[in-house]
Amino acid sequence: MKTLTLEKVVIFSALIHPSFALPNFIKGLLYLQDPATITSSIPGIQTASTDIQPSPVGINTALNTTGHITLAPVTTTAINTLQSVLPTALTTPLIPSFPSPLARLSPNILVPIATTAPPPQFQNAPKHPVPRSNIQGSGPLQTNKFYGNFYLGSQSNSLWTHPYSLAKTCTTSSCGIAVSHIERSQTAFAAGNPAPYFVNPIGIHSIVFGAAELGAGTSMTLSELDEFSANVHLAPTVGAAQVLTMPVVQGMGFVTGVYSSAQPVLMSGVFFSNLTLVSTDGGGADRVVKWRIGLLDGTSWLLYVRTDNPTNAPFLLQDSKTIIGPLGFSGTVQVAKCASTGMEQFYDSAAGAYATGGSVSASADGDVGTYTISWTKGGPASRRLLMFALPHHVESFDAATRAALTGLQMQTTTKGMATAVLAETITMVEDHMPVDVLYDAAPANGALKVASAAAQTAIVRAASIELAEDIFEQTNMNSTYWNGKALAKFAMIIYATYAKGGDHDLAAAGLKNLTTAFAYFVDNTRQYPLLYDNDWKGIISSAVFATGDTGADYGNSLYNDHHFHYGYFVYAASVLAYFDPLWLTKGTNKVWVDTLVRDYANPVTTDPYFPFSRMFDWYHGHSWAQGLYESADGKNEESTSEDVFSLYAMKLWGKTTGDENMEARGNLQLAVLRRSLQNYFLMESSNKNQPPQFIGNKACGIMFENKIDHTTYFGAKPEYVEGIHMLPLSPASPYTRSQAFVSEEWQTYFSDGRAQNTDVAWRSILYANLAIADPRASWLYFTSPSFDMASLDSGASLTWYLAFVAGLGGS
């Protein structure tokens, strides 16, 4: 969400003996001079010696807040009313219903919503403030994927494929792509129990892919920017022919460089100690030459070389910083870190083959969903791909994929241990999709609870006050985020009033006002109208053009938080469609909402106006909120609950429009997200994926690709850090937030009266969340004679919280 500067810098100076592993907190390794000498020649063992040591210079653990608002996403400002009592005499009776499906469920539920241009009220935006630099090709571009650092800004920050990270690195005479892998022993933990953050070192350049032709003027461009991958191209100068292409693919088992008529040069910031020729792997076109590289930090890396000319593959250890290959080389060079010789068999069996891209397909049958990640392959057709799966993948593998598992595991930065599979596809099964989670809150493992007569009375009493609030004022803010929250708030009140309170006339009166308020957005006449961005291909806030501030509107104009923002609108629209099906047929109501869904959750790659799945990462199993901002620690996500809400809203929109495929996608993505959250974000005491020093924090805080920080962009109070992963409380919350987790979290931070001492704007969020584990205690809080309406943030309501808690059995 926006801008703060919190710097935590740890500087270390030390001498390192070559027999010791490098210590924690290494920011980079500097060269001084190198009197290394070669003591043997090809073939066999080549060794190098040096009198100087790598020099660690520190690690910067600053929380980069560029594009993130530092004000809390809750407020308790005074709320005005339209009138003291909302008139109900002239309202039309409501007849809520879900339509019959428009078409049968597709075998692959990832089918187009539409491929036509956005409706004309989305006017074309001026030239985007972030140019499409360093990118080959045209068409919709991914804005929130793992490789963003390679085309943004300085192009000097890393990308993470897991388990490896890559970074462009240059000296005055050479440029290349550096490869790093970090062990948990190298992770830096802040002081405290639990540690408030942990961060992995960057700048440890174990192996650097370069070429003799790549000097200081090297140009780096990207092409084929897809959901799981991109191609990185290095050329001697801008516009020159590329000499090195590196496919970067999530989960890739090897880091692969494809050379074209160039002389490969491998470098190291950790220093080479030896290069050993291991095997030449037979003969023929598929011949792969294997070498073993020793580094001065004690790690061992495997080097595999494949070329159309098998006799043209000698590699020479020139000195402790440099391995050189043959002139005019065309072929592939692959490296992989090898923890033990017992694991080399898996690398050997796959060497020469490499992933070049990926795609996902999905199906649904009742409450069982299946999704398959398929990779395209380069290299010998006879070789299987070696790919790494994350813990949430392995946990849900189908039987065929489980048979492809190996014993090879490597540490990732923030997602536990990755496990290698030898396969071109992996298939995961989710057998508990939330098909029955609609508008009513219910326990995750139980039936919906009927509201008592007292609960109905309390709900209607609250609704009569809250539906009289000035909805038009609350939805005319200079923020897409806050406008969406207000619309969703009133939609929740209306549903609760009708379904739980039983006052249909009051609900109808509220729906009339919601319909009018929503129309301003469909007409695009509110503050900072939404625009269509022809550069990156998406729907963005006009705030950046009106203010000149790239962080305005929570960075929406630069593609921050689109799922958070638009999910609220989509939910509100689903309520309108549920209570008034004819609303879908009027004007551009439906296509306007469909366009928002296409922006943040487009299910196809063939839509010429939007990229596939902008926010949701099908490899990681959750969304990334950060858009077009470069970042030293990669993409991040701060609010998992708003991630949940965006998919829940999409599922309901599919339900109310008769789009079974969209509804099924929402169910499946919610199931995948639930598994990901419970593995990495919402840490029960039994969590096996995050460091033991950290899981006591419960909610993770801000998840980056390279670190996790138990904080928010607006402060580090427990109610902030835990609460941002709670709001908004919806019927999807009990599905994604387990009773065990909610209970542990409450006991850690808020039990024994501590909740009463939290910031007032967060208090009711905490107690509404408590209903998942202890609905009775939650009910008593909200129905207490001393309940303070000021403890409701302006994006929440007492009406909805009463209905939510009653549905969980609190009344």
TrEMBL record:
**Which superkingdom does the taxonomy of this entry point to?**
Eukaryota
Q: Does the keyword ATP-binding apply?
A: no
Identify the Gene3D superfamilies for this entry. Answer: glycoside hydrolase family 81 endo-[beta] glucanase, Golgi alpha-mannosidase II, domain 4
Q: What is its EC number?
A: 3.2.1.39
Q: Which GO terms describe its cellular component?
A: cell surface
Tell whether Electron transport is among the UniProt keywords: no
Q: Which family does it belong to?
A: Belongs to the glycosyl hydrolase 81 family.
Its recorded name reads glucan endo-1,3-beta-D-glucosidase
| Single GO MF descriptor | endo-1,3(4)-beta-glucanase activity
**PROSITE patterns, from UniProt?**
GH81
GO biological process per UniProt: cell wall organization; polysaccharide catabolic process
* Entry keyword set: Carbohydrate metabolism, Cell wall biogenesis/degradation, Glycosidase, Hydrolase, Polysaccharide degradation
Task: Name the top EC class.
Answer: hydrolase
Give all residue intervals belonging to the Glycosyl hydrolase family 81 C-terminal domain: 452-802
Substrates-to-products reaction catalysed: Hydrolysis of (1->3)-beta-D-glucosidic linkages in (1->3)-beta-D-glucans
Q: Which Pfam families match?
A: Glyco_hydro81C, Glyco_hydro_81
Organism name? Microthyrium microscopicum
Show where the Glycosyl hydrolase family 81 N-terminal domain sits: 128-439
